[in-house]
Write a structure and sequence with these properties.
Layout: E1 4-8, H1 12-24, E2 28-32, H2 35-44, E3 49-53, H3 61-70, E4 77-81, H4 87-90, E5 99-102, H5 107-121, H6 132-135, E6 139-141, E7 144-147, E8 152-155, E9 158-159, H7 164-175, E10 181-182, H8 183-191, H9 200-213, E11 223-226, E12 230-233
Parallel strand pairs: 1-2, 1-3, 3-4, 4-5
Antiparallel strand pairs: 6-7, 7-8, 8-9, 10-12, 11-12
Helix pairs in contact: 1-5, 2-3, 7-8, 7-9
Length: about 240
């Protein structure tokens, strides 16, 4: 069955370009030219993927994304942005976008990212209920407990509200506890890119994770920055 992609952009040339290339790649494509229409189609058409421009009439991409996430729509979202738009605005904690691309872009790269994100998100099991045998696969680091099979993580026995990307990053760090991981390694392992990507997206997601699992995100005890190298997740001292 064809995967359905919703393209929301107010530039007709971009919509036409993406519609043609995505269709050629085997996707069903639906389109919207403003944020309100895009939000409504996302809710009624149940697309498998959303490509969402940041600057839109009626509702901008940030507001569309916020409203969808507030309504528990977990459809992967790829944001399209201009080069001068701040990354932290695009990937803010409230936003919940899975990835971003700056204009101008290559249609081939867009399709590669769409496929990579779909591969990753489709690994999430539909049924979060685990049997006791699967519970043994959980990872525990101090007050942090991660259940890979149910895509759930708890801190102090409280369920963390994580985006799919944040969960996968946390899980990968936990599986490599104590090991220094470069930004390129994380980009390759978590974002599944086979091409050079922007490693700032890793920094933004690390920042979001720290906000959720650190007592003081400015003085992290779980996710440490190793200057000039990358990051590592470790057991807090004294725990």
């Amino acid at each position: 069955m064809e995967k359905k992609v919703l393209v929301v952009d107010d530039e007709q040339s971009i919509v036409t370009l993406l519609q043609y290339n995505l269709s050629q790649a085997g996707f069903e494509v639906i389109t919207a030219m403003d944020g309100e229409e895009g939000r409504d189609l996302a809710l009624t058409e149940n697309p498998d993927f959303i490509i969402l421009d940041l600057m839109l009439p009626k509702l901008d991409g940030i507001e569309v994304c916020k409203q969808l996430r507030q309504q528990k729509v977990e459809t992967p979202i790829l944001m399209l942005t201009a080069k001068d738009e701040e990354l932290d605005k695009i990937l803010g904690l409230e936003l919940g976008a899975d990835d971003y691309m700056t204009k101008p872009f290559s249609p081939r790269e867009v399709i590669a990212r769409v496929k990579a994100i779909l591969r990753r998100t489709q690994q999430k099991p539909a049924d979060p209920v685990q049997d006791p045998a699967e519970e043994e696969d959980s990872l525990q680091i101090s007050k942090l407990k991660i259940y890979p099979n149910s895509y759930e993580a708890y801190f102090n026995d409280v369920l963390l509200e994580l985006t799919p990307k944040e969960f996968e990053l946390l899980l990968y760090l936990a599986k490599n506890k104590g090991r220094v991981l470069t930004r390129d390694q994380l980009l390759s392992a978590v974002w599944n890119y086979d091409f050079a990507g922007d490693t700032r997206i890793v920094d933004v997601h690390i920042s979001h994770l720290r906000d959720k699992i650190e007592i003081n995100s400015k003085k992290p005890v779980f996710i440490k920055t190793i200057r000039g190298l990358g990051y590592k997740l470790e057991e807090p001292k004294g725990e």
